Prior knowledge:
The longest helix is centred in the first third of the chain and has 15 residues, at 11-25. The protein is mainly beta. The radius of gyration is 23 Å and the shape is elongated. The protein has a 14-stranded antiparallel barrel with strand order 1-4-5-7-8-9-10-13-14-17-18-19-20-21. The chain has three helices and 21 strands.
Amino acid sequence: MAHRPPEFFSHPTILQLVKHSLALLVPWTLLPGSVLGAGYYLPNQDAYATAKGNAFVATADSAAAVFYNPAGLTQLTKTEAEVGVYAIMLGNHVSSGGNSYDARRELQAAPQIYLATPINERFVFGFGVNSPFGLGTDWGQDTSFRTVVTDVKLMDVSATPALAWKVNDQFSLGASLSANYQELTLGQGVGFAAGDYLRFKGSGTSFSGSLSARWQPSEQHAFGLVYSSGSSVDLKGKLHSNYPAYNDSADMEFMTPQRIAAGYSYRPSPGWNVEANIEWLDWEQLNSLRLSSGALGGGMDIPFNWKSGFIYELGVSHISPCGWVVAAGYDFNANVQPDANFNPGVADANRHWLNAGFGKKTETHSWFLAYQFGFSNRTVDGAPTNGAGESANGKYESRHNAVMFSWQQRF
C-alpha cells in the first residue's frame, strides 16, 4: 500500500489513514513490556528471596510475606519494617531481516516497602507497597519492525493490606487485598514517513486479592500455598501522533493474570534452608484487549492469545551462628508468547535466571544484597506481517543484569 505524505490530508485520506492504522495495529499485540519472561510479571520483591530464585513461599518469615505468602506473617513476634529496591539493566538484541538492533539500555528500578506487626498471639497485620508487574522496552525508530512497536512501558503500583491468622502452632492462613494503579505507554511507527509515530498513554485503577496457607508440621519441613486473583482495569488516556488525525482520547482494556504458587522448604540442619517453588500464571485470560478511540473508527480488538505459563524456582541459604547469611538460587521462566503473536515490546522467551547474595541478620535489623543474571535465546519464525509489510521475525537474545537491596528493622 502506498504511503501518502501528511500534506495530502483530507477527509478521504484521513479515512485511509484510519484503515491503514488498523492494519498496522491488529498484529501490534499492545503490551507492557516485561522483559523478564513470564509475561510482564515482576516477582523480585525482596533481596533475600530474589537471591534464592524467589523460592520463598514456604519460608515467608519476614515482612515481605505480604507479597510472597501472607500466612507466613504469623512467624513474626515483633513489629518489622522493610524497605528495598530492585534495579535492572536490560540487554535485548535482535538480528532481523539481515540487520541487528539493540534496545535502549537503561537502568530501571522498582522499590518496595513492607510493614508487619502482631495484633495478638493469633493475628498479624501486614501492609506493603510494591510493583508486582512492569518495566519496559525501547527499540527506537530505526528497526525493521518499527511499525510493529517502538517502545512500551508499564508502571504498576500496588498497596496491599494483609492479615494472617495462626490457627495452631503448625498451620496459618492469610489473606490480602490490593489496590492497584497502572500506567501504560506504548508506541509504534505509523509507516507513512520516516519518524512518524502513534502512541497510547493511559492509566487506571483496579483491585485484586489473595488467599494463602502455610503448614509447618515439623522443624525441618514447611509448605506454602498462595492463590492471587487477577485484575481488570480500563486505562483511560490519549492517542498522540505527529498526524493531527490521530490525536484523540482513548481507553484500553487491560488485565493482570490470576496466579497460584506452591512451595516446599526443607531444613536439613540448623542454619540451612533448601526450598523449591512452582508458580502458575493464567495468561490464557489475555485473549484480546479492546482499544477504543474515535481516531480508530470507534475501536478495535487486539488479539494476544497467549498461553498459561510456569515459573520453576529453586534456592538454598545458610545463616551462620554470628548472623551472616548467604543464598543462591535458580529460576526458569517459561515463555508464554507464541510465535504467531510475538511482539518485541514484550519479547518473551524461555528465560534462565542465576541468583546469589549475602547479608547480615541481628536481633534489631537485617540487610541483604542480591545479584541476578538472566539470559535467553529465541528464534521467532511466524510472527504476523502488518499492513506495512513488516514483521518481528528474527533471532532474539537477552542478557540482563540486576541488583537488589533490602533493609529490615525490628522494633
